[in-house]
Amino acid sequence: MTDTPVPGDLNAPFRFEYDPAVLRYGPDAARTLSAELDAHGYDRALVVCGATVGETPAVMAPVREGLGDRLAGVFAETTPAKRLGTAYDGLERFREIDSDCLVAVGGGSSLDVAKIISVLASTDRDPATIGRAFVDSGTIAVPEAGLPPIVAVPTTLAGADLSIVAGVTAAPDTSPVDEPASGGVGDPKLMPEAVCYDPKLIATTPRSVLAASAMNGFDKGLETIYAATATPITDATASRGLGLLTEGLLAFGTGDDDPWVYQSITQGIMLVQYGISRTDGTTLSLIHALGHGLTRTYEVQQGAAHAVIAPHALSYLFEQVDGRRSLLADALGVGDASDSGAAVVDRVSEVVRALGLPTRLRDVAGPGQEEFPEVADAVLEDAFMTNIPSGLEPTREDIVDVLESAW
């Protein structure tokens, strides 16, 4: 283990620039959407969601009731693929009903599509020009002004709500492009104006979907503690959020459906996101880079990839550097352990098992062992690797070893 300076030292200078959404939390919070739109001066909302959410009365009834006469229409066509073509269909609907804001209901896919709709609505460039630029650059330029605002109503635990980025893909059969492409859009103007956290809506999500999404959000909290870009502010929110998530997810894994469980995981996912997506960078790091490498060209679901790889990534991290293991152990409720690094790995593994998620790469639709060197190259090139802790210098062989240990 190498002793290196770590974020959070009381003598370490930091700068924290963050302009988050308004946070609205509470059971039945969705029924207050009209008041939130009124506070921001919005009158005609287009709800953006997936087909399943759009057909789920337990979700849509409180959303419809909450919006009241401010509900102008529903676009229930988002998919996990987050297609540019879907965003263009949503844009057509947005303009058809003369909306002035977007209400994204569901998981990260619906929020990302809503963000792309907002970007497209604010530009006069034709679809072919945008499509060609996206193929060439992997992104879509965000105009300086005119973006319709977004209010997010999450129903999963993926933790995409307090973010200034959006992922998007394109294919010739669904989008104005001449070849498949994928990428992302990032800009402070993509931060939602408000996020409505309603534990009753979280509780409507099928348990298997909620469990899979949980690791995405849970790992955001883990990484925020050890990332090179951590601050005392994000230490506080991530630590408290991880504690709530750990307690709630372990209970959820036993089948406990008491309201406190959903209240705990909803507040936890809200807190671990606070301050992690900022103008000057993010706290996403090693685990998310590994997750990108495992999902970029494979069918493995992102939450499953995170579940499999997180304990092994942490073991590697703690072998090389301190990784702020003591703070992580305290946050996860195992601060009294004699070996805090091992206790953190065991606690994360316990959460994975409680959620019924896969624990081996060989059990998911990911890469075979012969592909590990290629995956390792992609991981090392991932932008999130710039946020790994000081003193950690992974090689291709190191990443392959992590993948082998997860196999």
TrEMBL record:
It comes from the Archaea. GO terms for molecular function: alcohol dehydrogenase (NAD+) activity; metal ion binding. InterPro entries: ADH_Fe/GldA, ADH_Fe_C, Alcohol_dehydrogenase_Fe. Transmembrane segments: none annotated. Residues 211-407 form the Fe-containing alcohol dehydrogenase-like C-terminal domain. Keywords: Oxidoreductase. It holds the Pfam family ADH_Fe_C. Residues 20-199 form the Alcohol dehydrogenase iron-type/glycerol dehydrogenase GldA domain. The keyword Oxidoreductase applies. Gene3D superfamilies: 3.40.50.1970, Dehydroquinate synthase-like - alpha domain (1.20.1090.10). The keyword Coiled coil does not apply. This is Alcohol dehydrogenase. It comes from Haloarcula sebkhae. The lineage of its organism: Archaea, Methanobacteriati, Methanobacteriota, Stenosarchaea group, Halobacteria.
